[in-house]
Every structure is written in structure tokens, then in C-alpha cells.
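Notes from the 1:1 (GR / supervisor)

We went over the backlog. Supervisor wanted to see one worked example end to end before approving the batch request, so GR pasted a single chain during the call. The sequence is below; no edits were made to it. Supervisor asked that the structure be written out right there so they could see what the output format looks like.
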Amino acid sequence: MYSELKKACLEANFGLPRLGLVIYTFGNASVADYSRGVFAIKPSGVAYHKMKWQDIAVLDFDCKPVDGHLPPSIDAPTHAELYRSFKGVGGIVHTHSSYAVAWAQAWRDIPLYGTAHADQLLSDVPCTEPLDDAEIAAGYEAAAGRSIVRCFRERGLDPAAVPMVLVGGHGPFAWGRDGARALFNARVLEELARTALFTESLNSGVTRLKPSMIHRNRLAPGASGGKPVVEK
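Structure output shown during the call:
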């Protein structure tokens, strides 16, 4: 019944080690089917090279099991929170990629320093605020999802225009219209984190790219609504 959804999810998960975004069983990808009110996600603790589409877990958006013989990723509640709140998101990727995690562990946004960053999003990559002890005790993964949603609402960010975030002390999440686009955005996020770190190591006094350069792609042929459209 869910074979095509599971296969799409498996393909997104295979992209994580292929792009160097995970080691061992770290990280996970999910793909949603809103018409059936479910999402498919990597099973917990299964090595990528051993994973088959039949192993993929299917849950509803309240994180209740629908199909599958293995337990879902521990991060499933975070994915569920994002699917419920960020309509139109068809795929989500979570990794522990080194450079993005470093910024998350430093509790820092990734500043917009260059045009390659501006080609993809017109803001810094946001980092969530710390959770309080009660939120953590009540269920960390769901609380992490709510912290992402809260971060975007408080900052007035559009998840379609800013398809990535750092969960402070934890790591990156990225999303998109489908699993392939979420994977693309996760790889972009890691590269933005890497180059921003190198930039600050070379010039500790560096400042954000000036607005005229950040917004230059609003005037680019084919640009729509000021949203980044470049895929290199």
C-alpha cells in the first residue's frame, strides 16, 4: 500500500551517506504523503547499506505507527511537528554533518557572508533557542520540532524561503517539496556552514554581505518573488 512512498524515502536516505552528510546510522530522511496523512521515515538504528524499502516506517502526522515492522527514527516527532506546521513540505532531512553541527553546538546562526549563500536564501540560517528543562523532560524530539516552528514564527521567516535550520546543541534540519530537494538543501546547508567557518577564521571582523548584494538576485532573469532560484 505504501511501497512507492517507502521507496522515495529510501532513496532520500541513501543520499545522506552518498553526499557525506552522515556516518554509521546517524541522521534520517522522511517523505510525506498529505493525501493519505502519513509520512515515511528511516527506521531506528539500521545501517544505510543494509536498508531495504520494506524496512521504512510509515507514521501518521501524530506520529502513530501506520505501517512497517521496525521502530521509526527517534527523530520522528520532530519531523511530524514540521509536517503539521510547515504546509507544502514534502521531505525532511536531519543530519549530524560536522560543520553545521559545530554552528548548532555554538548556538549561532550561520551569517550570510557571500553570494552563494544569497543564491539559496536571503537570510542567515537560523539557530533555535535553548529549550527549558520541562520541555526536554516532556519529550525532547517533539520539543525540538516546536522550537523550530517557534523560531520561524518569532523571526517572521517563511519556511519555503528558508528551508533549513539549526537546532541549538543538536544539529541541522532541512526540508523541501520532496525528498530530493530536502537532500539538496541539507547539502547546501553543510557547505554554507563550512565556508562561513573558514570566512571567520580568515577575518574575525567580517560583516554580513551588504543588502544590495544579498538582494541582487531579485533582479535576475527568471527570479520570482525575491526568492532564491539558483540551483548550481
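Supervisor's comment: Residues 220-232 have pLDDT under 50 and may be disordered.
Batch request approved.
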